[in-house]
Design brief:
single chain, mainly beta, Methylamine Dehydrogenase, Chain H, eight-stranded mixed sheet, four-stranded antiparallel sheet, about 50% strand
């Protein structure tokens, strides 16, 4: 969940208790009983599991040089972390002040860009030292962040994705994400992989693979059952966190308060 207030807690539990209401309110999400001829559907094969610090309310994830950069959220608990792949050990950590709820991150030319949820401010860090180099501003909520070869790519919890210049954060393009003509809302953590945008859909086990030119969903990944409830010693939250290693073609996923991080292979359904 995005916040810790009681109303959000009641809403979230209502969605889980009454899944049919949730499904009806989100017609663009994948339906196994009526597959589209134009959209591909994937399940997964777990290649390997890695430890993951369960205090991490994962909001953003990037893989680079055998370690992860990870952004964790919640007021009073938000951070930027460097995390070792094999052990899950936090090698370096920068704690944000309590007024900020950290969100998505991306790595651009040795600088880490990090969003905040509702403060409309982002931070730019040195990749190695985590020194704060600069700030930037935007007029929406901040959820997910990634980039292609030219632009930063940002989600704000709606069905829209914006393309922004890395130097001035000026918006140059905006696309609406749709599946079978219907908008796909609650776009969350983003990763740019092989000329497509991968997006977690908040409150679901689904990842959308999106065409960055027109916003159409090319494929759905269903990660249901990836982390059984009994796997972690403490309670977990939703799937969130996508990272890709282009050198070895490895895809990693995790979630908020998950005790495991997974390397997966996509399997056509």
């Amino acid at each position: 969940m995005k916040s810790k207030n009681w109303n959000s807690f009641i809403l979230l539990n209502t969605l889980f208790i009454f899944p049919f209401l949730f499904a009806c309110s989100n017609p663009a999400e994948p339906n196994a009983n009526s597959p589209s001829d134009e959209i591909q559907y994937y399940t997964y094969q777990v290649i390997r599991e890695y430890p993951h610090q369960q205090d991490a309310f994962t909001q953003g994830l990037v893989f680079t040089e055998q370690y992860f950069l990870e952004s964790t959220g919640l007021y009073g608990q938000s951070s930027l972390r460097k995390v070792e792949l094999e052990s899950g050990t936090v090698l370096e950590k920068f704690n944000l002040i309590n007024q900020y709820f950290a969100e998505g991150i991306t790595l651009w030319e040795n600088r880490v860009y990090q969003l905040t949820w509702q403060s409309q401010i982002g931070f730019i860090y040195d990749q190695e030292t985590f020194a704060v180099l600069d700030t930037f501003y935007y007029n929406s909520e901040g959820w997910g962040l990634t980039h292609n070869s030219t632009y930063l790519i940002m989600s704000d919890g709606s069905a829209f994705i914006r393309f922004l210049t890395p130097d001035s954060f000026k918006e140059v393009k905006k696309i609406e994400v749709t599946a079978d003509g219907n908008p796909v809302n609650r776009l969350n953590e983003l990763e740019y992989i092989k000329d497509n945008i991968y997006a977690n859909i908040w409150l679901t086990n689904n990842i959308a693979i999106i065409n960055p030119e027109n916003g159409k969903v090319n494929a759905w990944i269903d990660l249901s059952g990836l982390l059984p409830a009994s796997s972690c010693p403490q309670s977990t939250d939703v799937l969130n966190g996508i990272a890709y290693d282009p050198q070895t073609d490895r895809l990693f996923v995790t979630g908020k308060w998950w005790c495991r991080l997974f390397e997966i292979k996509l399997v056509p359904r």
